[in-house]
Amino acid sequence: MPDRITRRLAADSAGFAEAGALLRAGGLVAFPTETVYGLGADASNGHAVAGIYEAKGRPRFNPLIIHVTRIEEAERLAVFSPLAEKIAHQFWPGPLTLVLPKRENAAISDLALAGLSSIALRVPSSATARAIIEASGRPIAAPSANRSGHVSPTLAAHVLDDLEGRIDAVVMGEAAEVGVESTILSLLDDRAILLRPGGVTRTDLAAILGYEPEAMDEPHDDKAPLAPGLLKSHYAPEAQLRLDAETIEAGEVALLFGTFRPKGLEAAKLSINLSPRGDLKEAAAALFSALRLLDQSGASVIAVAPIPDFGLGEALRDRLARAAAPRS
Ligand code: TXA
Ligand code: MG
Questions:
Q1: In sequence order, what are the residues at sequence separation of 6 or more whose Cβ sits closer than 8 angstroms to the Cβ of residue 166?
Q2: How far does the centroid of ligand 1 lie from the alpha carbon of residue 254, in Å?
Q3: Which of 235, 276, 234 is nearest to 255 (CA)?
Q4: Integer Cα distance of 85 and 74 in angstroms
Q5: Per-residue confidence band for 234, with pLDDT thresholds at 50, 70 and 90
Q6: Taking a C-beta distance cutoff of 8 angstroms, is the pair 136, 23 a contact?
Q7: Given ligand 1 and candidates 31, 49, 96, 181, which is best to mutate, with the most ligand atoms within 8 Å of its CB?
């Protein structure tokens, strides 16, 4: 590693067919979804899945999300309660992952599920992602297409920065529209539990669940389902992050939101505003690109101005907190 030619495939019908054939043959293909670019492999093929962990340099205990294009296919892989049905019909296709009991006969490699008896399923809405999964004819295991611990990719160019020479192909598709990963909701218990904030907001979910938005927080007891991949330090740029910064210190670069102007901003060598008009959707779509650019400035600290904690702001703040956490 790196030891192979990474092909650039066009996001057209010939490219989708080629991507599908590569996936069927056990290859690794990165492609856009509406959340972030994913690194796909045939989820039923243990060798192919092992390739994902190798290419990413990812700890093996981390289970993967399985992507399909229709609810009926998801129902062949997992047991859906009436509540799960309702949530799936409301939010799929879209940026929501459901953790459900795996069906015993589901043909998914144990490696993809890290040996768990539950399965994380998602039906993406990106037309590009859907065409590629369809063309493969397989359930597709796909983590974000970045080296383990790096910021998730929202552009094909980000994927090539991280994985060129380590994977078989990248579909050169659209910029990821949502920009942060899917929301992960566990429905293993009677009560839904929000394992990762993401593209579908807590408030959207609460409206369908009939809960108070706070009621789906993970209970702090031993019975809480594990989200093994949710490392505290993740999405780590080289630079340190300083959150909720109201002043910019000498030598720092700045990540801004809305009209708030931290003191000392004039002296910053580089600043990027995620959304000058204060739109959280626009900010989410811009987050990972902005972190990459600020990191490339070589500054040792990225000062992050306050970002609201409601709606998509929860997912933004979650990713920034992980990027700011001390590295292990
Ligand atoms: O938006 C997304 O979800 C992207 C795109 C490519 O679909 N994928 C993504 O995958 O973010 P990844 O591998 O970076 O994150 C998957 C998360 C991990 O935190 C993992 O622990 C959790 O899903 N997960 C997978 N299976 C699980 C399970 N059975 N129970 C609990 N958590 C699970
Ligand atoms: Mg990831």
A1: 1, 2, 3, 4, 6, 28, 54, 55
A2: 29
A3: 276
A4: 10
A5: low
A6: yes
A7: 181
Nearest CA to ligand 1 atom 9: 143
Domain assignments of the chain as residue spans, ordered by start: 7-216, 240-323
How do 29-32 and 37-42 pair as beta strands?
antiparallel
CB distance 38 to ligand 1 below 6 Å? yes
Answer for the pair 32, 173: CB distance below 8 angstroms, yes or no.
yes
CATH number of the 240-323 domain: 3.40.50.11030
- H or E stretch including 91? helix 82-91
pLDDT tens column, 60-93: 668 999 999 999 999 999 999 999 999 999 999 9
Q: From the CA of 129, which ligand is nearest?
A: 1
At residue 326, what is the residue type? P
CA 101 centroid distance within chain: 21
pLDDT of residue 228: 54
Q: How far apart are CA 84 and CA 86, in angstroms?
A: 5
The CA 252 to ligand 2 mean position distance, Å, reads: 27
The one-letter code for the residue type at 157 is A
Interhelix angle 82-91/202-209, nearest 10 degrees: 130
| pLDDT band for position 219 (cuts 50, 70, 90) | low
Q: Is the pTM of this model over 0.85?
A: yes
Would you identify the CATH topology of the domain 7-216?
DHBP synthase (3.90.870)
Q: Hey, which residues does 252 pair with through a beta bridge?
A: none
